[in-house]
Amino acid sequence: MGRKWNNIKDKKAEKDKNTSRIYAKFGTEIYVAAKKGEPDPESNTALKFVLERAKTYNVPKHIIDKAIDKAKGAGGEDFDELRYEGFGVGGTMVIVDALTNNVNRTASDVRAAFGKNGGNMGVSGSVTYMFDSTAVFGIEGKTADEVLEILLEADVDARDVFEEEDNVIVYAEPDQFHAAQEAFKTAGITEFTVAELTMLPQTEVSLTGEDAAKFEKMIDALEDLDDVQRVYHNADLGE
User: What region holds the TACO1/YebC-like N-terminal domain (predicted)?
Assistant: First the structure.
């Protein structure tokens, strides 16, 4: 169900080219999560989740500590969590999650990124119904059968467990994220190539040639926006 988690290493390598931008976005996300609850991941589930995801991107400790320390201080910035939905070339669907301290600026920037690259913004709910919120893990050094056994012993239900290149990929319900993670840690698995909640498309749209290039340009424009944290889509670009 949904598309496979293709080319994990290549995706992470591409993201790692923009580490300063990624670290800045994680800094904001960690700050917001810590400010919304206790600045302690053991008592703040949202913060714990963000920190675990940050680990897979090798976010330096000093950036994490700075964001948490900032959240502990009085006052500070207030951020709104926003979700935009839209369409790209060929009827592709896109979800954009943002954290912003200026809603008007972010809405304008996201709309422009869509419009300048053959896409357009949709109304709330026009796209998300075609995606499934999913917990996803990527694990190296194990077989799919070994990973499945770990999950079964911990009574964690998985939607899918499969091998892809050098990884075992696990799809599970979002509310099973921490249970699955604890099961893996109990089994001695503490490093993941992927450990996050994502939005998996129920169907894909294949793009090639100019359409694929235009779509990738639009996604790059959206991801380059400072306020945008995550971008999900249903395009199959043949990667």
Answer: 3-73
